[in-house]
Amino acid sequence: MLTSEDESYEAIRRLAAGVALDQALDVTDPDSWIGLDFGVRELAWQRPELLHSNASPSGRRLSWDSDAPLPIGTWAGKPGDAELALALCHPDGRIREAALGYVEERPALRALVVIRCSDWAAPVRERARALLAEVPPHRLAAHAELILRVGRRSRGGFAQELLIGALRTGPDAQAEALLDSGDRATARLAHCIAVERRLLPAARLAQTAARHRDVVVQDLCAEAAVAALGEGTSDGSAEVVAPLLASRQPRVRSAGVTALRRAGRHTDSEPYLTDRSTVVRACARWVLRQGNIDPAPLYRALCADPTSRPAAAVGLGECGVREDADLIRALLAHPVPGVRACAVAGLRALEAVRVGDVRPLLDDPSAAVVRQATIALLPWADRVPQELLRGLLAEDRPRHQRVAAVRLLRAAGVYA
């Protein structure tokens, strides 16, 4: 299996033999251009013979000896793209600079002009930047991924600023074409520009937030979708709120709950009081309070039978009072493991953990319950009998119980 380094070296050998640029490497892949740039310099120093070939159509060779006369200045006619590609990556800055004089009408080599815009040699860098500044803005988007990759370098900001400017002022379709890019940085930039220019309707922003795989794009689109809703109006809110609330991502669901307030649908946030996410539960409580509804009584009612909504116990702990501790504590013996786990979390949120009540749950068959009990007992690990914890270390014990015992023994300072 070829590594990326092997592929770069093979591309260089082909170019040195005069193979056409688009046949020697994948010209659509930024990694191919970056690999070519690094690979040429490495081979030039380590194995210069691989870069010479009598098969070049022009019969010319680049000199890879830094003491030899520069070849480009003596070329008759125009060198081919393959020769120029190698020259633009040459370890000698004078050759790179000279090669730039031949690329103005060579769009196939524009990717290397982008790379040279971050060149360490100022004359090369300045000449490349002058060339790139003359490129029509709509042509820059084709190299967006490479430009953003180069933009991470210490001198890579020039091409990136050109690209951003082109996307901000160019046709809508130019930015929209990059929204579905498989490159994370490109997709983020495209969505940022689209939101800034208000190119996307609120419904599409909501759908993107709910479905996109990148968390930055999710947050960006979710916030923009909510902001697009008119304050206190429900017109069109369903097609915005529904995708947000259906998302698997807590941040997106929380944005959907927040949108309920903007749409004046405060009571619709009640089901999210028992969401599995802390942030979503907090948003739901805030929205209800904005509608002059106290969430605590709702939680207390749900705790009477939390089987279908186990998070009621932890929700009550997050917003209740000390007197609610007994109601939550009674759920430690509930037959549903999820309720027991949330009851422990609720007591911890209420700062009402009693070692004697939680300690028996270290022997619980549910890993989730034991995990919550362990977290609750860590501050008081020295109060848990060591013989109990050592008993949990037996080989026949479930793994989650053994892990809990190790964590608590270490917290007590008696287990290395």
Could you give the topology of this structure?
Elements: H1 4-16, H2 21-24, H3 30-46, H4 81-88, H5 93-100, H6 110-116, H7 122-133, H8 137-140, H9 144-150, H10 157-169, H11 172-176, H12 184-196, H13 202-211, H14 215-228, H15 238-245, H16 250-262, H17 278-290, H18 295-303, H19 312-319, H20 325-329, H21 337-349, H22 355-358, H23 367-377, H24 386-391, H25 399-411
Helix pairs in contact: 1-3, 5-7, 6-7, 9-10, 12-14, 13-14, 13-15, 14-16, 15-16, 16-17, 18-19, 19-21, 21-23, 23-25
List the defining traits of the structure above.
single chain; 416 residues
Explain this structure.
- The structure is a single chain.
- The protein is 57% helix and 0% strand.
- The chain is built from 25 helices and no strands.
- It is elongated, with a radius of gyration of 32 Å.
Give a brief rundown of this model.
This protein has 416 residues and is mainly α. It has helices spanning 4-16, 21-24, 30-46, 81-88, 93-100, 110-116, 122-133, 137-140, 144-150, 157-169, 172-176, 184-196, 202-211, 215-228, 238-245, 250-262, 278-290, 295-303, 312-319, 325-329, 337-349, 355-358, 367-377, 386-391, 399-411.
Helix content: 55-70%
What Rg, in angstroms, do the CA atoms define? Answer: 32 Å
- State mean pLDDT (0 to 100 scale): 88
Tally of alpha and pi helices: 25
Order of helices and strands: HHHHHHHHHHHHHHHHHHHHHHHHH
Spatial gap, N to C terminus:
44 Å
